Amino acid sequence: LLERLKPRCEEIIAQYEVKRSALLPLIHLFQQHEGFASPEAMRAVADMLDLTPAVVESTVSFYTLFFRKPVGKYVLQVCRGLACQLNGAEDIQAYFREKLGIGHLETTPDGMFSYEEVECLAACDRATCMQVNLEFFYDLTPQVIDQMLDAMRAGTFTVAPMAQTETPASTWIVKQDTQVSQGTKSLGAVDQPNPNNAGGLDKDGVIMLDRIVTQEQRFRGRTKERLANVEPSIAAIYANGQEGSH
Amino acid sequence: MPVVKVLTEGIGEANLRDINVYKERGGYKQLERAVRTLTPNDVLEICDKSGLRGRGGAGFPTGRKWSFLPANNPMRYLVCNCDEAEPGTFKDHMLLEEAPHLVLEGILIGAYGIGCHHAYIYIRGEFKRGYQIFMEAVEEARKAGYIGKNLFGTGYDLELTVHRGAGAYICGEETALLNSLEGKRGEPRLKPPFPAIAGLYGMPTVVNNVETLAYLVPILEKGAAWFASVGTERSKGYKIVSVSGHVQKPGNYEMPIGTPVREIIEIAGGLRPGRKLMAIQPGGGSSACIFEEHLDLPYDYESMQKAGSMLGSGAFCVMDDTTDFVKAAFNLVRFFAHESCGQCTPCREGGHWLETVLHRFVAGRGLQSDLDMLRKVSNQITGINLCALGDSIEPFLASVLNRFPEQFEARVIKEEVLPA
User: How large is the average pLDDT for residues A142-149?
Assistant: First the structure.
């Protein structure tokens, strides 16, 4: 693939006065052909631009339109901006989740669809809107969605599927990523309670730390015990002797 | 009704994507006139006299921005900012797709006006279709001799590079945009130095919004006095207002700056029958709300500021009495928390904690102490970050919390139902 794209890459690099500026367009190019920004592609781009692979990956990880893991053939990005929300985007999102059986940032097991709720797409005059592989669709209703999904499954949809060179996993988000947008920074992982995400959310959306603060009288004692009292899963972690490692 | 067609002229009627159609309607004449008969200084003077102010959000006078470029350095760049991502704004998206040649001519005139030989346009990654349309326009213009070496035989060279982003709201901030254009993470830089002194590749750079540059074309055609004759004392000319939310005919409407707020709602078809106006967000996701008592204010930079909000990018979001303001506030706070680049702690952490707290309110499980905290926390986030994103997190929340406290209070849980 690199051989084939090389001339186009050189054309792109020549458009800029400083080589590194070509980083985004080159990743766009590779992603277009591979369906995602693969480690090999990032290494190749690093070579062409005289950068280290780490620098390239760091930059790529900043941008939400670059996927560092394979995604579905159709990436469905439904707008969750304010104007869409005022016009019923929540119902549309719920409909998608139900129809596809997956949630935000997930891919269906057959590798067909990836679903994401994205920020304002700048088409608020025709809310609610979405993009399929970056092509706009407006004025969504359950009927429109049904027709779209059927056409995609039947292979008669107006938008071409993404290239898919590898089978996608259930999500394309890289776990160790500390990117702000994935909500994994100081809060800790939502679904994996451990002593160090006391500030995180529990399943009810309540901050665990707040429970402790508001129920201080009931839970006096050392931090470990307090935490274990509040969250059974933490007690289990202590019991098994596996202290959290974040 | 004061709807006018200046930039929006012909959109929806003629195929302005076709260079021949655009030329028949007088396209590229102003570029030719500028390059052939005017000096860059003349262009700057016309721009200055017209009173044109930046249409991207900050509203900085365009002529003054250009004049900050150091005269002793011939190396300089013009960058057109088409990373439109402010919630509720969709004017640049329309211009890019429907009038690509107008945008292009504006950029080229702007580039000549500041005397640069290489201009860039940064297009939001999501606008794939717009990018393709614009690339075709650029190819056509290049063939027609409007881009390249020795324009119109005058010896003036001008190159243009189209750069596509990859999904990051923060790249609309000018220094973050420059970093992204340089192939780096889109993180804003410390200012000063401002881009006019050290911008792209460390060289003096002007970053202007799509709409700002596009207005150069009619200003050159009809004169600075024509543009300065409309609008209010300090806000001149026309503006495309993106009306969205609870109106019957949302869309882009071009009008003189200073049109009363009430009229803008009428232009967009008014509210749905039987509904009552609750709030308007007049300047995109970053702005505080204005309310009923502000309906007769002129929609200009100064009046919006006096009302405690801002005109911003001209995104005008109307909310009626069906609106859940707790959810709306959560929506916008989540947006800013999501889009924070993470460099500055108050913005990165503050945004995320506000999101978490508001999430509790949305779930009907807010705490009484949160209400006081929400009221106090704002000045601990605002004004202490590298860029304006941190300052944008809280104005909407503060204004609706102040106006509709009952909606928040209704979602506070009582002590005894706290989960054990």
Answer: 96
Paired tokens of A41: 């592609």
Q: Do A180 and B342 touch (CB under 8 A)?
A: yes
Separation CA B89–CA B81 (nearest Å): 14
Compare CB distances from A82 to B88, B90, B360 and report the shortest one's residue.
B88
Say whether A204 and B419 touch across the interface (CB within 8 A): yes
Q: Which residues of B touch A134 (CB under 8 A)?
A: 125-126, 128-129
Taking chain B (420 residues) in runs of 10, the rounded mean pLDDT of each run is 88 94 95 96 96 92 95 94 95 96 97 96 96 97 96 95 95 95 94 91 96 97 96 93 96 96 96 96 94 96 94 95 95 94 90 90 88 84 88 93 94 66
Contacts of residue B332 in chain A, CB cutoff 8 Å?
82
Contact: A119, B163; criterion CB under 8 Å: no
CB contact under 8 A, B169 and A119: yes
Interval A45-74 mean pLDDT: 94
Per cent of chain A over pLDDT 90 is 68
| Identity of the residue in A186, A205, A211 whose CB atom sits nearest the CB atom of B349 | A186
CA distance A106 to A6: 33
Q: How far apart are the first and last CA of chain B?
A: 60
Other C-beta atoms lying within 10 Å of the C-beta of residue A232: 10
Cis ω for the linkage preceding B193 (within 30 of 0): yes
Residue A184 has pLDDT above 60, yes or no: no
Do residue B359 and residue A205 have CB atoms under 8 angstroms apart?
yes
